[in-house]
Design goal:
This protein has about 425 residues and is of the alpha/beta class. It has 2 domains: about 5-15 and about 235-425, Enolpyruvate transferase domain (UDP-n-acetylglucosamine1-carboxyvinyl-transferase, Chain, Alpha-beta prism); about 20-230, Enolpyruvate transferase domain (UDP-n-acetylglucosamine1-carboxyvinyl-transferase, Chain, Alpha-beta prism). The chain is built from 12 helices and 24 strands. Strands 22-23-1-24 form a 4-stranded mixed beta sheet. It has a 4-stranded mixed beta sheet with strand order 2-15-17-16. Strand 10, helix 5 (about 165-175) and strand 11 (about 180-185) form a beta-alpha-beta unit. The radius of gyration is 21 Å and the shape is globular. The protein starts with a strand and ends with a strand.
């Protein structure tokens, strides 16, 4: 799907979609609890569907109901031994794949994991090393498909902390169900620690005890049980980043559904944009941002890699020079996001220098229109759309359907705020 956006201010109010990161975690915890659990306020997407699909394959039962506040999942939890070899399609979701591989081993089922797009290129080596150490059978030719079979025991586990926090989350979900106690430790400084903090917080709400030791060290008592209940999902700061970018580029937008006490690392987008001089304030109806003159800063992306596309777009239309550092892992997402943003923003006249671990962006007051590619990446499409108020001509985005991965209603919300969208060429 190719669309054309005619530049103009975006103004109004929106409810931010539920946090995709938190939704994955709440659904997984509910599926591991024996009995009925309700998860409310869910915003549906392809990634969330992938997680539900595999958990159902492993024995959980799920029913959906809808309301103005979002989707509610009624989950009958408990993983069960099934018949034969199971094929688990993770779609394009790295979170789904890495979170659920250890749970396949806990379930006692032989499972073949498959996926689409660049998912097969995303690293799984830390799990391979664990499989070899623990005597777990696995078959792969590098990437997907990956067949795993065996039992995940308790014990001592080590992971590199500079590849992805998703490996830590996967083991933190699974190891409380092992018979023995476990120790999970990082062999390097743990990057994206905020995501692991979110996992530990979710586990605590669902009755699981994790003792956090030193940097990247977790003591996990075995033989635990997840508790049932009713749990609500908070709004997503990584999605809010695109609307904050749009408002600061030209408009006035109020966002509801965001938690002031959220542990989401991506909450940092608010302080980053304020540091750039952006007006963002909390009011009774939510978080409000409006047009302003922003200036360049240095952004450390180590713990907030998902913010890079929106932040890079914002920097391209801000005054002065911005540098994004410690962002090498952003190259391993749905696409090489550093390269994609450098290429596509340059098409619009942005001045960007690409570095191995980041970007140097020399901002301009406005950019031209033109035709850009989404690289089949939801965050690239949304980031480019978010700065259209600063463009001097129409913007055509190729592959605009990529937003379905995390935010299917993005273009509807864009129109709700006054955005002028038409089919490309129409």
């Amino acid at each position: 799907m190719n669309i054309t956006i005619t530049p103009g201010p975006l103004s109004g109010s929106l409810r931010v979609p539920s946090s995709k990161s938190m939704t994955h975690r709440e659904i997984i915890a509910a599926a591991l609890a024996k009995g009925q659990t309700e998860v409310t306020g869910i915003s549906w997407s392809q990634d969330i569907e992938a997680t539900c699909r595999i958990l159902t394959l492993l024995g959980a039962s799920m029913k959906k109901s809808e309301s103005p506040e979002g989707i509610t999942l009624h989950i009958e939890g408990g993983l069960r031994k099934q018949t034969g070899l199971l094929t688990a399609d993770a779609g394009e979701s790295g979170s789904t794949l890495r979170f659920l591989i250890p749970l396949a081993l806990i379930s006692g089922n032989p499972v073949v994991f498959t996926g689409h797009g660049r998912l097969s290129e995303r690293p799984l080596t830390p799990y391979y090393r664990i499989f070899e150490e623990k005597g777990i059978s696995y078959t792969t030719e590098g990437g997907l498909p990956l067949k795993v079979e065996g039992k995940l025991p308790g014990g001592h586990y080590e992971l590199p902390g500079n590849v992805s926090s998703q490996f830590f989350t996967g083991l933190l979900f699974a190891l409380p169900l092992a018979e023995e106690d476990s120790l999970l430790a990082s062999t390097t400084p743990l990057e994206s620690k905020s995501y692991v903090d979110m996992t530990v917080d979710t586990l605590a709400r669902h009755g699981i005890t994790i003792h956090t030791g030193g940097e990247g060290s977790y003591e996990i008592p075995g033989g635990q049980s997840y508790k049932t209940g009713s749990f609500a999902v908070e709004g997503d700061y990584s999605q809010a980043a695109f609307w904050l970018t749009a408002a600061l580029s030209g408009g006035h937008i109020t966002l509801a559904g965001l938690s002031d006490t959220s542990l989401q690392g991506d909450k940092a987008i608010v302080s980053l944009y304020r540091e750039m001089g952006g007006f963002i304030e909390k009011g009774p109806k939510g978080l409000t941002a409006e047009t302003g003159r922003l200036h360049g800063i240095t952004m450390d992306a180590e713990n907030v890699p998902d913010l890079v596309p929106a932040f890079a777009a914002m920097a391209a239309v801000s005054e002065g020079t911005t540098e994004i550092i410690h962002a090498g892992r952003v190259r391993l997402k749905e696409c090489d996001r550093l390269h994609a943003m450098a290429v596509e923003l340059a098409k619009l006249g942005a001045r960007i220098t690409e570095k191995p671990e980041g970007l140097v962006i020399h901002g301009r007051p406005s950019l031209s229109g033109g035709t850009v590619s989404s690289w089949n990446d939801h965050r690239i499409a949304m980031a480019l759309a978010s700065i259209t108020p600063k463009l001097t001509g129409p913007l055509t985005i190729e592959g605009a359907e990529s937003v379905r991965k995390s935010y299917p209603r993005f273009w509807d919300d864009f129109r709700k705020l006054g955005g002028n969208i038409s089919a490309a060429g129409g």
